[in-house]
Amino acid sequence: MTSDVHTMADADAMRRALELATRGPSKGVNPRVGCVILSPHGDVLAEGWHRGAGTAHAEVDALSRLAPGDAEGATVVVTLEPCNHTGRTGPCAVALIEAGVARVVYAVADPGADSAGGAERLRAAGIEVTHDVLGDEVEAFLGDWLFAARQRRPRVTVKWAASLDGRAAASDGSSRWITGPLARADVHRRRAAADAIAVGTGTIFADDPALTARDPGGEFFDSQPVPVVFGRRPVPVDAAVTRHPHAPILLEGADLARDLALLQRRGIRSLFIEGGPTLASAFIAAGLVDELLVYVAPVLLGGPRLAIGDLGIDNVADARRFDFAAIERLGDDLLVVAHPTDHRPAERPALLDHRP
């Protein structure tokens, strides 16, 4: 039985479930999920949330707070469709059926290839199912997790800083600092919000970046992105990235789509690309970029050090098109945020540096 009609009590309970979901870990393989169980009269019987991989899912966590039989005839309100698979824990759909609930209300369908189908299983057992209650709010809350689960890869942001004439460095290779302190602080804030930060081995050898996220005073943010290094050349044992709070993930970069799928399976939902032109160009050419962050400084440098390299584009008609999502003033600099209008891979994608 399916219903698109929900009550005020459903919406109120969903808002509470969303509050509970915020208590779960914001990074990792599993989503943050909250659950509220209502009696047939609309009273709150129990609440629960998911505390991370290997722990009880939100529905089971809420049920565990009730005595056997207390959930019979109840309405279960949960932010994500109850799962339908056995992993470290059993299927939530089965647990709800066995508990004798009468109705399940959820906000967003589970996009997992293995875990989806819980709603259908509940309906087959005679349980009324209502979906899309506060769906937009929960979609926004689960943004990166839902993207990664649906696309089977992290959301990819490519960042660079450049002069007005598109140069990332002067002719001698110097690039510190093209942009000012407000722009640099904004970059570090965005680094801290990402699950992982990536560069190529060329950047490791040229700049020896730490790939950490720090406040303007130089102190580490509580949340640090996992460093990812693309390329075949070994990372020097004394490189700054080896002293990062997280162990670096090393990937060859020969198949970027495969590498991104591997990162998603490791719980990386968002990837911040901050390598040089080679890495940025490779991801753009492969059609694997979801957002551009371009910090533009009011300077001219000239010379050959362009922020982006060859994308395999020979004609203006084949240009990669982006929509401006935002333009922000940061001191003397501008931040341009742009999203691609499509994700077409180039016919001749730029390759990463695979020198031995």
Order of helices and strands: EHEEHEHEHEHHEHEHEEHEHEEE
**Proportion in helices:** 25-40%
- List the uncertain runs: 346-356
Q: Which strand-content bin applies to the residues?
A: 15-25%
Q: Kindly state the mean pLDDT as a whole number?
A: 90
- Which term fits the overall shape? elongated
Strand order of the largest sheet: 10-9-8-11-7-12-14-13
**How many strands, which pairing sense, and closed or not: the largest β-sheet?**
8 strands, mixed
Could you tell me the number of beta strands? 14
Summarize the structure.
The protein is α/β, with parallel strands linked by helices and about 350 residues long. The protein contains ten helices and 14 strands.
Give a description of the structure.
- The protein has 356 residues and is of the alpha/beta class.
- 25% of the residues lie in helices and 21% in strands.
- The chain has ten helices and 14 strands.
- The protein has helices at residues 8-21, 58-63, 92-99, 118-124, 135-141, 143-151, 181-193, 201-207, 256-265, 277-285, and strands at 2-3, 34-38, 44-49, 75-80, 103-108, 128-130, 155-162, 196-200, 226-230, 249-251, 270-273, 291-296, 322-330, 333-340.
- The strands form two sheets. Strands 10-9-8-11-7-12-14-13 form an eight-stranded mixed β-sheet, with helices on both faces. It has a six-stranded mixed β-sheet with strand order 1-6-5-4-2-3, with helices on both faces.
- Helix 3 (92-99) packs parallel to helix 4 (118-124).
- It is elongated.
- The N and C termini lie far apart (61 Å).
- 41% of the residues are buried.
- The model is unreliable at 346-356 (pLDDT under 50).
